[in-house]
């Protein structure tokens, strides 16, 4: 899924996908380092997570984030 979203974000150019590692393109939300990287990435951001939906912050559900 991260590869597909990365290609969509880069308008189909595979250069970005090949040059930037997965953990920089879609950092893990549940790690402190991942959260810091995600906040530093330009919008629209790609964020990875394996958290159950019940553990997401309530603000997430009222945001414009796409899941």
UniProtKB/TrEMBL annotation:
GO molecular function: sulfotransferase activity
Record InterPro entries: P-loop_NTPase, Sulfotransferase_dom
Residues covered by the Sulfotransferase domain: 1-67
Superkingdom per UniProt: Eukaryota
Pfam family, one: Sulfotransfer_1
UniProt xrefs under SUPFAM superfamilies: P-loop containing nucleoside triphosphate hydrolases
Methyltransferase is among the record's keywords: no
Coiled-coil regions listed: none
Alphabetical keyword list: Transferase
Class of this enzyme: transferase
EC number: 2.8.2.-
UniProt similarity note: Belongs to the sulfotransferase 1 family.
Identification of the protein by name: Sulfotransferase
Source species of the chain: Pluvianellus socialis (Magellanic plover)
This protein's encoding gene: Sult2a1
């Amino acid at each position: 899924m991260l590869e597909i979203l990365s290609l969509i974000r880069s308008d189909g150019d595979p250069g970005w996908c090949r040059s930037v590692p997965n953990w920089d393109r879609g950092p893990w939300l549940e790690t402190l380092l991942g959260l810091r990287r995600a906040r530093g990435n330009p919008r629209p951001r790609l964020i990875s997570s394996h958290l159950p939906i019940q553990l997401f912050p309530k603000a997430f559900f009222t945001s414009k984030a796409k899941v």
